[in-house]
Amino acid sequence: MEQQSVPHLLLLPFPAQGHISPMLKLAELLYQAGFHITFLNTPHNHDRHLRFTDLQSRFTSSPRFRFQTIPDGLPPDHPRSVQLIRDIFFSTQLVTKPLLRDLLLSFPQDLPVTGIIADGIMTFAIDVAQDLGIPIFIFRTCSACAFWAYRCIPKLIEAGDLPFEDHDDMDRPINSVPGMETLLRRRDLPSICRLKDLENPVLQFFVNETFNIARASGLILNTFDDLEAPILSHIGPHFPQLYTIGPIHTLLKTRQGDTPPSVASNGSLWEEDGNCMAWLESKPLKSVLYVSFGSIVSVTRDELLEFWYGLVNSGKPFLWVIRQDLIAGKEGKEGEIPAELEGGTKERGCVVGWAPQEEVLAHPAVGGFLTHSGWNSTLESIIAGVPMICWPQLADQQINSRFVSEVWRNGIDMKDRCDRVTVEKMVRDLMVDQREELEKAADKMADLARKCVREGGSSCCNFERLIEDIRSMMS
Ligand code: UDP
């Protein structure tokens, strides 16, 4: 009698914080559903995880869950910073792709990889998987609205909406993305659209990756139907096996109930400073503005100071994440934290290098979030019912912030502006003048998000369907 293979999934995230965190949560969900998991990190990120989390101890205590490493193809001293993260797009295709094939062939005969879930900008894995006859699903970690905008880049070019240059009549309406006809302006398109040269390799990369996904067995999105249904109805016909299972961090928490996590960690690449939670305890209900620009965005020293003065002048208490690499140009004076911030913010502010963000947003003292509109941060804010001020910088952030301010109406958009007067006004609008209506919209969204992940909710049902489909493809 032929021996049944153990269901063994290999998960391959793109090596950046905003991709690793949701992929780890998906890994934990699948682990709980009974799969063996191999989670592939780059050595660079794995070392950072080990420094700041307890992945290693969890690994040894969970024989069904293993971490392994695969190089991203960049030299160890490469900064992997916002200016240079694009190098990974190309190095992984050249270096990681053949290594992935070797790795898949090296698993023992009693535990071969029987399915793969790869990040939506690592689609070289589809070639490898199909070559070896292994089913593969893609997890695209951005919003559905951003994904659809990437998918429509050829339409944008055809309509003459692209190319344009940054600062080139940025309020001009964009009508060629179906489902968003009266919504978008040039400035709301994903940042790669701010390129004059249509042959630009990064633009080509995003278009190719998005179209490649159709060759996989299914597409997983970290969103929920009640949030993005109109856009999902445009995506569906192109990707019939579509699984919307977000917000994934809440789906995981809901399914776990009171059971302690078996392997999960948020996969932080920085050390969390939990002291800010005690600081929050001392603050009144919904009085604090939480400020964070995620893991990749950098700011100039001047921008940092404009935010600082705007926040201080607003008179509201704030908790600000200033990563050690937040200020662009780490060399010389330019990379130093300005003297005004050095001694802490004294009366009203608390500055940390990296915060336990989900916990912070869930804290009753937090009443607003000044964010770069990264998709994970947006979802974390939605589930916590915290209204946002959006200051998007790159990738999908520009379109996410447009949806926050104009479609979901749970925040306001500060796109392409950064001066102390605007910051101060935005903070007052969010925390005082527009508070009631923004809070109402935020509460409604939070409610819908919670329903989606509960038993019988769309994300919960879609996850069950995903498990069944993966199982049936493996058998
Ligand atoms: N994050 C965190 N602590 C911080 C700042 C960010 O834990 O001080 C987490 C945040 O909760 C989110 C992720 O880092 O899950 C950032 O992802 P996002 O998609 O928002 O932005 P990116 O870093 O990809 O630009």
Automatic annotation (TrEMBL):
Look at the named UniProt entry and state the broad enzyme category this protein falls under. transferase
User: What are the alphabetically sorted keywords of the record?
Assistant: Glycosyltransferase, Transferase
- EC nos: 2.4.1.-
Q: Where are the transmembrane segments?
A: none
Q: Which InterPro entries match?
A: UDP_glucos_trans, UDP_glycos_trans_CS
Question: What GO molecular function terms would the record report?
Answer: 7-deoxyloganetic acid glucosyltransferase activity; quercetin 3-O-glucosyltransferase activity; quercetin 7-O-glucosyltransferase activity
**Catalyzed reaction equations:** 7-deoxyloganetate + UDP-alpha-D-glucose = 7-deoxyloganate + UDP + H(+)
Full protein name? Glycosyltransferase
